[in-house]
Amino acid sequence: MADHPLFWPIRIRAERKARKWDTHAMARQLREAAGEDRHDLPEHGDLVRSIRRWESGSIALMSERYRLLYCAAFQLDEAALFAATAEPAAPCLSLEADNDLGKMRSLRQADRQVGGGHLYASVLGYLQADIAPRLFGGSDGPQAFVAAAAFTEMAGWMAHDAGKDNIADRHFCRALDFAKTSGDLQLEAHIMGSMSHLARHRGQPEEAIRLAQLGTARLGSRTTAPRMQARLLSMAARAHAVMGESNACARLLIRAEDALTQVQASAHSPWAGPFDEGTLALDTARAMLSLGQLGEAQRQGCRALELRARDRTRSRALTQVLLAQVTLAQDHVDEACARAKHAVEDTRSLSSFVIAQQLADLRGQLQVHKKHASVPDTLRILDDALRERYWLYQWGDSYREPGRTAVRA
C-alpha cells in the first residue's frame, strides 16, 4: 500500500499524542508489537530517531514492516492509518491543527469511557478559548473552520448523550456551517450522518433518510470514503426499519457491509469519526429489533459485543441493553436480567442520559415479568442505579430523570 506523502506523518503523530506516549514510549510499543522479532529492530535510540524522522515528514515512505507494527501498536487497520491516494497531495496541516487533532482524539477516547455529561464543558471551553480566536484573523485560515466544525459536532454528540437534543441539534447545524466553509467534504458528510441519527432518535425517520442521502451525495463516488458511506447507509437503514420497511432496510445494510470492504481512493479525513464492523453490527442489531427479527438481532448484537474492545464502555453497554431487550422478547428472562446487571455494573462511572434512559425503558419491560424469580433483584439493582445517576443530569439549569420531563433545579 502506497503511503500518502503528507497525511500519514501527521496521523501517526496525532495517534501517539492522543495516547499520551512520548517518542520513547512509542519505540517501546513498536518493539512490543514486534513480538519474537523485536530483537531484529534497531537499538532504542536509533528507533526513537526514526520515529522523529517519520513524524516530521522528512522520510517519504515507511517500509511495510513498520507500517504493520504501527497498526498493531495503535490497533488500527492499515487503510485508515496509511491511507492510499491517487489525488494530489493535500497541504500540510499546521502545528495548531496537529494539536487540535490530538485533543480531539483524546476527548473521543475519554467520551467512550465516561460519557458526554462529564466532558461537554471541556469541549465548549476548548472551542471558546482555543478555536474561536482563530476563526477571524488567525493564521491557519480554513483549517480553523475544520477544527471548529469537528469540535462543535463533538459537542452536539455530548449534548445528545446528556439528553439535551435541542442543544445537540443547534450544535450540529452550526458544525455543518463551519464544515462547508472549511471545504472538508468528508467532515460535511460525517456531520450529516450525525444529524440523521438525531432526527431518527427524535421520531423523524423521513428526515433521517433525507439527511443520510444528502451526505452520501456529498461524497460522490463510493470509493471516496467507503467507511463514511457505510455509516450513512446504516443511518438510513435504521430509519427505514423504524418505518417497518424491511426490504429497503436490508438493501441498505448490504450496501453498507459492501462499502466496508472497499479500498478508500483518497485520504481519510482525520476529523471525521470512525465507523467499523462493530458499529455496523450494532446498527444492524438495532434495525432487526425494530423489525421484530429477533434471531438476527441477537446474532448481530453478539457479534458487536465480540468486536468491541473493553474500553468502549458506552458502546458495550448499549449492546448489552439491546441484547437484554432481545432475549426478553424471546422470553429468556434470566439471560435478560444477567445482561441488565452487566450493563449497570459496567456503566457506574458513565455520564450518559441515553444509557440511563435505555436502562429505565428496560426496567419497564422487565416489570411485566416481575413474578419471575430473577426479576425482583434486577429491578432493585436498576432502581438503585437510576437513583444514583440522577445527579449526573443536573446540567445547566435543569435536570431530567429517565422517562420524566425536565424539572427546574
Summed up:
The chain has 19 helices and 2 strands.
Characterize the structure shown.
Residues 1-6, 84-92 and 395-409 have low confidence and may be disordered. The longest helix has 20 residues, at 95-114. The protein has a two-stranded antiparallel ribbon with strand order 1-2. It is mainly alpha-helical. The chain is built from 19 helices and two strands. It has helices at 7-18, 23-34, 44-56, 64-74, 78-81, 95-114, 116-135, 142-161, 165-182, 185-201, 205-219, 226-242, 246-259, 277-290, 294-307, 313-329, 333-346, 353-367, 375-389, and strands at residues 398-399, 407-408. Helix 6 packs parallel to helix 8. The chain is globular, with a radius of gyration of 22 Å.
Which properties best describe this structure?
409 residues, two-stranded antiparallel sheet, 69% helix
Mean pLDDT: 84
C-alpha Rg (nearest Å)? 22 Å
Strand content is under 5%
Main beta sheet: 2 strands, antiparallel
Structural class: mainly alpha
Assembly type of the chains comes to single chain
Order of strands across the main sheet: 1-2
User: What best-fitting shape do the alpha-carbon axes yield?
Assistant: globular
**Strand/helix succession:** HHHHHHHHHHHHHHHHHHHEE
Alpha-carbon distance between the two ends = 57 Å
Helix content: 55-70%
Find the count of extended strands (DSSP E, 2+ residues): 2
Q: Count up the helices.
A: 19
Low-confidence stretches: 1-6, 84-92, 395-409
SSE order and pairing:
Blueprint lengths: L6 H12 L4 H12 L9 H13 L7 H11 L3 H4 L13 H20 L1 H20 L6 H20 L3 H18 L2 H17 L3 H15 L6 H17 L3 H14 L17 H14 L3 H14 L5 H17 L3 H14 L6 H15 L7 H15 L8 E2 L7 E2 L1
Antiparallel strand pairs: 1-2
Helix pairs in contact: 1-6, 2-3, 2-4, 6-7, 6-8, 7-8, 8-9, 8-10, 9-10, 10-11, 10-12, 11-12, 12-13, 12-14, 13-14, 14-15, 14-16, 15-16, 16-17, 16-18, 17-19, 18-19
